[in-house]
Amino acid sequence: MATRGSRSKKVKRIFQQFDTNRDGGLNREEMAALVVVVNPRVKFSDEQINAILDEVFLTYGEFIDGEKGLTYDGLLWTYDDGAGDVDRDFDAVESKKGAEKRST
Q: In Å, what is the CA distance from 4 to each residue of 1, 27, 98?
């Protein structure tokens, strides 16, 4: 199990990987990409993705920064709440990044 310090570093790396427009928030499109990457064995429908995002944005509304979306603190809070496994998700993100580098 990761310590809080190493967890926050992993969450920061995950956040930075998906905040593609670098505005400091994960909008619905960026969050959808995150959900897909950290669940590589699941084939979500658009409706399922939208339901997941609706729940995240409702549950963590205090961490939504307008159009920017979910802040870094909000993403960290989702992991603190147990909504995801930061170690597993970090590994999935790093694996995806490695695969993309190998294919270029």
A: 9, 25, 25
pLDDT grade, residue 96 (50/70/90)?
confident
54-91 residue pLDDT tens: 999 999 999 999 999 999 999 999 999 999 999 999 99
Counted domains in the chain:
1
- Return all residues near 97 (Cβ < 8 A) that are at least 6 apart: 17
- Structural domain harbouring 22: 4-97
pLDDT of residue 33: 98
Dihedral of the CA atoms 75, 79, 80, 85 (nearest 10)? -160
Residue 102 in any domain: the answer is no
User: Inter-axis angle of helices 46-59 and 28-37, to 10 degrees?
Assistant: 110
Burial of 100 (0-12, 13-18, 19+ CB in 10 A): exposed
